[in-house]
Design goal:
- The protein is an alpha/beta fold.
- The protein has helices spanning 12-23, 37-52, 65-71, 92-102, 124-135, 155-158, 175-185, 189-196, 203-224, 233-242, 245-263, 268-281; strands spanning 2-3, 30-34, 58-59, 78-81, 112-116, 141-147, 162-165.
- Strand 5, helix 5 and strand 6 (141-147) form a beta-alpha-beta unit.
């Protein structure tokens, strides 16, 4: 089973570690994502979608009922818990609820998923209650914790989760990408292709455009999931307002596939035409 993560999320090592654990069947029952909450929470949501996805080859596919519900934050087997924002505001009562709820069989998916956002705010009593669950985990239950600094958690908690540290990258996309994003949001396929015309004889520039479009689609998806974009805020906002999370996730996947085809020496004009047809044939 393959895990699909946008190439622009974190470092290559970060993605490889997550993908390797998932694909080899060694995905731990409790994962801690260390980094800013704006970055780690959207990733936790994508990983949760992968857990409830029903595709047999690559997850999250973005198309199955499980993925669509997860991307809309309405899947009955995914629960998001957090404190009220302050230090030690994440109380034991939330963990007590989690324990009783985890004992109930999943509604639809093969497992139940619990996201504990900003786990650094867990009180000591809450952490001790959580420790009991992590020491004796229920079957078919997956935990994702996010924390800005893992050292804020008790050593006993850290020893029972696998930590993945996120290193954010900041870059600015090619200016042409902003224009292409506007064409996508306006449903202007002809205008999109006209803007792409200068790329037909420039494979290197086309590769850059694909790379930067992936960044923008990713950032728009991050915004949709409550995160913070890493490059062009204006274009990311435009895409996030005009497109659904499901479509944005599909656009990340499509752009990655088209870029891979470019690396296999596909004909650039035909590739860009195909890319446009896939984008504008999708439902909003």
């Amino acid at each position: 089973m393959k895990l699909l993560l946008p190439e622009s999320i974190g470092s290559q090592r970060f993605r490889q570690d997550l993908e390797g654990a998932f694909e080899n069947g060694r995905f731990p029952h409790a994962v801690l994502l260390e980094g800013t909450s704006d970055s780690t929470l959207p990733i936790a949501k994508l990983l949760s979608a992968a857990c409830v996805c029903t595709d047999d080859t690559a997850r999250p596919c973005g198309h199955c009922a499980g993925c669509k519900k997860a991307l809309l934050d309405c899947h009955p087997d995914i629960s998001l818990l957090s404190g009220e924002g302050g230090a030690r505001s994440f109380h034991k009562e939330s963990i007590t609820f989690l324990r009783s709820d985890a004992a109930i069989r999943p509604n639809e998916a093969a497992c139940k998923v619990y996201i504990l956002a900003d786990a650094q705010n867990l009180s000591e009593q809450a952490q001790n209650a959580l420790l009991k669950i992590l020491e004796e985990p229920f079957s078919a239950v997956q935990f994702f914790l996010t924390a800005e600094n893992a050292s804020a958690l008790l050593p006993t908690i850290r020893s029972r989760v696998q930590t993945f540290r996120l290193e954010s990258k900041i870059s600015q996309p090619d200016p042409l990408c902003k224009t292409l994003c506007e064409k996508i949001c306006h449903g202007d396929e002809f205008g999109f292709l006209c803007e792409c015309a200068p790329l037909f004889r420039d494979k290197s520039h086309t590769d850059t455009i694909f790379h930067d479009m992936i960044l923008l689609f990713r950032d728009a998806l991050m915004l949709r999931c409550g995160g913070k974009p890493l490059c062009d805020l204006e274009s990311a906002k435009l895409l996030s307002k005009g497109l659904t999370k499901a479509k944005l996730f599909s656009l990340v996947r499509i752009a990655q596939e088209e870029q891979n085809a470019l690396h296999r020496n596909a004909n650039v004009p035909l590739l860009l035409t195909h890319f446009a047809s896939l984008i504008f044939s999708m439902e909003a």
